[in-house]
Specification:
With 369 residues, the protein is an alpha/beta fold. Helix content is 39%, strand content 11%. It contains 15 helices and nine strands. Strands 1-2-3-4-5-6-7-8 form an eight-stranded parallel barrel, surrounded by four helices. Bound molecules: iron/sulfur cluster.
Amino acid sequence: MFEEIYHKYDWEKIKKGIYGSTGEDFLRSLAKDTFTPDDIIPLFSPAADQYLEEMAAKSLTITRQRFGNTIQLYAPLYVSNVCSNSCVYCGFSRSNLIKRITLSPREVEDEARILYDRGFRHILLLTGEDRRAVTPSDLAKIARSIHGRFASVSIEVYPMETDEYRMMAESGIDGLTLYQETYHRETYANVHPAGKKRDISWRLNGPDRGGMAGFRKIGIGALLGLADWRIESFFTAVHAMHLSRTYWRSLIQISFPRLRNAPAGFTVPFPVDDRSLIHMICAMRIIFPDAGLVLSTREPSRIRDGLLPLGITMMSAGSSTGPGGYGHPGLAGDQFPVEDTRTPEEICSLIRSKGLDPVWKDWDRKFIE
Ligand code: SF4
């Protein structure tokens, strides 16, 4: 389980290593094709900042070699915004007075139909983290009702037991996304003041439980802005190394959710600027040539346009971040504001304008049936 590996690394020591790396250390690491945790430390260092163009060039080359010219499109589908946690950075926190809704199975199907008609074949089902509002059985039923139409159905919900994840996989869900939010233990405790999410071990080992359950795709990430992005990147990469080695049949995906507009009363403690985000994405591509790198509509169009060729392989488009938001925009409280509000058609045009191919479907579960 990842928690054992996590405890081998001390945040402050890693920070010292990253901030103490030299340009020579960075160039030695950049020349490698495979990496140990020690090798990746210089890739996230301030000494690497001056080599961003070299990193971007290598990242671009690797991405085109491994993924061709394709960019996979997906859409989030929020089933519920009921949450029993109180993450200080999130619009769904139980302390926020927003309209709470849990869609009925019929309403989920309506939302799914809208996304299907817009062309999406990969969808991500999301809920707040309250397993009473949407139980694992509810999710399994929803998945069974819609997965026939979609090539891929993933979930981003509360962490589950391995057997529950198995039930998800058996009902047609093939992907799990579970962000750690932050790998900095004290920050984790401070930003998760109440609810089950306070249990950092439960979350750290969640992707392992998903791997044991046999998900085809496992997505992880840190919520950028909660702690120093350089050290978060190191821990995210070590987590991805562990998962890809242990669950080698699963495709590992790394997301880069950046805190931009936090709820009132919360100030982003470590804002991540655009250059740092590019640095992080390029370094991850260099370390993980085959990983899916995901960028959501949290990012404004200008950033998404610029990052598109550099290493990203999956993008959401035309997203709503509240339940029922496709059929009835504004029906309930959203999780976060969407910055890139362009339609899926506009995103496809953008992708083509960069010489890339938008892909609605690159997988069919019939491959394994
Ligand atoms: S981040 Fe997730 S667990 Fe935390 S308040 Fe938001 S929906 Fe709930």
